[in-house]
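User: Sorry, folds how?
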Amino acid sequence: MDEAGVLDAVVVGAGWAGLGVSYALAQADMRHCVLERGRVGETWRTQRWDSFHFNLPNMYSVMPGDSYDGADPEGFMTHTGFVTLLEDYARRRRLPVRTGVSVTKLEASNGVFRVVTPEQTWLAKNVVVASGSLNRPRRPPSASALRGGPVQLDASDFRNAGDLPAGAVLVVGSAQSGCQIAEDLILAGRETYLAAGHIGRLPRRYRGHDIAVWLVKTGLFDVPRKDFVDPSGRVAARPMLGALHTISLQSLSAQGVVLLGRFVGVDSGRLVFTDDVLENIRFGDEISAQFKSRIDEFIRCNGLNAPAPVEDEAEAVAPRLPRPPFCRSISLSGTFQRLSGARASRATSAGSIYPAFSTSDVSRFTKMALPRFPESILPGLILRPHAGQAPLWLSKTRRVDLSAIC
């Protein structure tokens, strides 16, 4: 601290972004500390299912100042492997991380922030909130109608199919987590239903590379914020992307998952869904085709020697739909578990995960309108969710690798 006992910065959260920001501050010789309420990478330890893998390849899952030198650049890290990476990084870089310290209040006065914890109060000229964007479940009002009925479990609490009570499982939400968990369940032999929404899709690989490589090369991660955030501050849901291979609604149905429309509520003891299954499948196909077309054009314009397109079986397989094709409702009688499976989708009606900023009173500064603000909310107050799943509404561009924030 300086003579007045004020740090240059306090970083809240010791995940991907928090540690990355700490490294940048250390490189600039700024006096700071990192406060983490749990352990380094806490949400990666406690809010991921057993088979979870990163959606970004290893070559992009690196920390600032590091580079990937392994043998599998287009492979995918497990969540436990990532926790090991974070711990090693904090140790090697000698970052000033204090674990087990919860921030309970954040106040600003005369250009200085008071960061209050149960142990002490820290004074700082700047505060970087890097507590993550996918750490608090949010259920729709319709979920309350299921109380006393089937077991309800948020995606952040799911670990594996064996931990669930006997019976069929309904996964609500067809984005990243929902589709991956649905596949986990059906491969484990569970009777699985998926309430799907209007979500795009990406292939895992295309023309010789992982799709993330093409997204970087074509500049799709560098689209400016103004072009993907609408005036209300809302951002379209990210396309669904399987972690290890392509997953589509039709490939899930071919494996035995029963596809349903969007879950809209409960009526007279029955779960009610929209009848837009075919529309949702078509939309996923259209988004995938658009991305592929852009990659094809990029290859052509730059004279790249890329392999010819190969049909992806997960996208080409015909869906197996219920007969009649639109199942509008399901009885709640019997043993039926409901698993809210969508993460970080601002458009889904069930099972979403959102930022938990309230513990540091950030909501008082942002007036709960985070998407409308640039990354610096007040002079010295910066919101930095973890970069691996960085919410686009807090980014300058769509780029999510950590180099973009340091």
Remarks:
- DSSP finds nine helices and 20 strands in the chain.
- Confidence is low (pLDDT under 50) at residues 341-355, 357-378, 384-395, 400-406.
- The two ends are 22 Å apart (CA to CA).
